[in-house]
Amino acid sequence: QVQLVESGGGLVEAGGSLRLSCAASGRTFGSDIMGWFRQAPGKEREFVAAINWSGRSTYYTDHVKGRFTISKGNAKPTVYLQMNSLKPDDTAVYYCAAQRRFSGNYYTPNEYDVWGQGTQVTVSV
Fold first, then answer.
1. Which residues of the chain fall below pLDDT 70?
2. DSSP characters for 4-34?
3. Do the beta carbons of residue 22 and residue 34 sit within 8 Å?
């Protein structure tokens, strides 16, 4: 299976920016959909953004649309999440996930096959 490792999280003041990276490795690497999810303490895992592996289609939750941008490397097997104008409500552990074959649903965690370990994002007031 593909292995996913997130990085780039940290502490930032409101209005600041962070770029998360999701590096894929393993004996195989192929998935129709790559997604970012986040989970705050005491809350359910929430869909943030997704991209098809061709990079030609992207999807966002309304909470981040216009502020976050998901993209993939041109050559490197890496998916990025550029986060601008960060708000305290964005504070969460952010997870990268892969869906080997598109199920028709990109926003539900159970539809994804492989997950990274998560990276903490904390936005202060």
1. 1, 27-30, 75
2. EEEE--EEEETT--EEEEEEEESS----SEE
3. yes
Q: Is 97 exposed, middle or buried (0-12, 13-18, 19+ CB in 10 A)?
A: buried
Instruction: State how beta strands 68-72 and 78-83 pair.
Output: antiparallel
pLDDT in tens, 67-82: 999 999 876 788 999 9
CA 81 to chain centre: 6
Displacement of CA 17 from its chain's centroid (Å): 15
Torsion of CA 105, 109, 111, 117, to 10 degrees: 130
Give exposure, 30-66, as e/b (b: 16+ Cβ within 10 Å): ebebbbbbbeeeeeebbbbbbbbbeeeeebbbeebee
